[in-house]
Amino acid sequence: MCGSRTGIRYNISINIRMDLQKSYTNDSIDVNRSMESLDMYIESIPARMKKFSVEELLYRKQEGKWSRKEILGHLIDSAVNNLKRFTEAQFSSLPYEVIRYQQDDLVVVNEYQQLPLEHLLNLWQALNRQIVFVVRSMDEEKLNYPVDPRLSTGELKSLGWIIADYVSHMEHHFKQIFPE
């Protein structure tokens, strides 16, 4: 993990208990590995998405479920909201409180189903490149800042945990887009 723009690398792993609802991370959090994975996805996902036909991109398995394009749109909304969280948590009062967003409403209002795939991919890549930059600019102290993700347990997590959970959430949705 780059702790600053000088390129200093930190090996940051945060161990946590997982008895939570709606989290995607496992027991061991490695922010550096999460950013390496995110870098890889930024480069590889566009080519994989472009292999789908228009019909495959727009297809909804059932009523009320998102298409592949809408899942990508949801990941754009997730990137927007998490970029805000990752930056604000560094200067807000602690513990930083995560504000939820209306994911279904955002997918509808943004009309991801109608937008060109190239537009969605460019936006998704740009947002995630900024996330990688912001996270790699954090030092270890900031990664350990307490965050209230508003989980049913009331448990506080670290900013590093929130970052790793963001990437794990993305991977969850990639399994829906690319069921192999």
Can you walk me through this structure?
With 180 residues, this protein is mostly helical. It has one domain (28-177): Four Helix Bundle (Hemerythrin (Met), subunit A). It contains seven helices and five strands. It has helices at residues 31-50, 54-58, 68-88, 103-109, 117-136, 140-143, 159-177; strands at residues 13-15, 28-30, 96-97, 146-148, 157-158. The chain has a three-stranded mixed beta sheet. Strands 1-2 form a two-stranded antiparallel ribbon. A hairpin with an 8-residue loop joins strand 4 and strand 5. Helix 1 (31-50) runs antiparallel to helix 5 (117-136), helix 1 packs parallel to helix 7 (159-177) and helix 3 (68-88) runs antiparallel to helix 7. The longest helix is centred in the middle third of the chain and has 21 residues, at 68-88. The relative contact order is 0.21. Residues 1-23 have low confidence and may be disordered.
User: What is the H/E string?
Assistant: EEHHHEHHHEEH
Second-tier CATH architecture: Up-down Bundle
Distance between the termini: 30 Å
If helices are DSSP runs of H or I spanning 4 or more residues, what is the number of helices? 7
Average residue pLDDT: 87
Highest-level CATH class: Mainly Alpha
CATH topology category name? Four Helix Bundle (Hemerythrin (Met), subunit A)
| Cα gyration radius (Å) | 17 Å
